[in-house]
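tmp note - S-layer homology domain-containing protein
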Amino acid sequence: MRKLALLTIMFTLIFVPFLQNGTPIASAEAPFPDMPAFGGSEINRLYQDQILQGNPDGTLRPNQQVTRAEAITMIGRALKLDGTQRSTKFSDVPSNHYASGYIAEGSEQGIIAGTTTTTFSPSSNVTRAQMAVFLSRAFDIKTTRPDVVYRDVNANTFGVDQINAITAGRISAGYPNGTFGPNNGTTRAEFALFLARALYPEFKLPISAGSGFTRFSGDACSRL
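out:
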């Protein structure tokens, strides 16, 4: 019996994933009560790897716009940056801001830049073009393809090279109508999908035979 008990304990320690508070969860269990209709596997993986965390009330709020502070926090956790709260060079990010450590190190490593030389605008929403810039810099995603594949993106569009890069990298394929929406906001669920594709090869978009990347139909998957 003692041997069986020891084996049970070892199995539990090795195979049962834990949350930050030590509560075990099943790998297939939805971590949030308001999970979106798409991206469950990606969100669950980010959650189990302690990259994506919910709000104090335990919800994800998937349709809420992701902020610049939230985005760099998730990227920082994914890259295992030092998130220790500290002073930053931005006047609107005090040392006690929850994301100050990730903002400071992300800025030092060239992953992010301020909205001005002295401000970061941590509560501002992340546009899709900014998302492309953040992820391409964070994960060193590049492309040799010079062509612009979206009707609403041209050589003068902010982040055009990074938009092309994440498209070639199978992280985004734009909207079904052939646009990318560079100035559109990015929801928390959408950012989680993009981040998961950048971080985990198994979540990258499938290659469509003959014409680049698969574009999905339907509202739930339109921002992929």
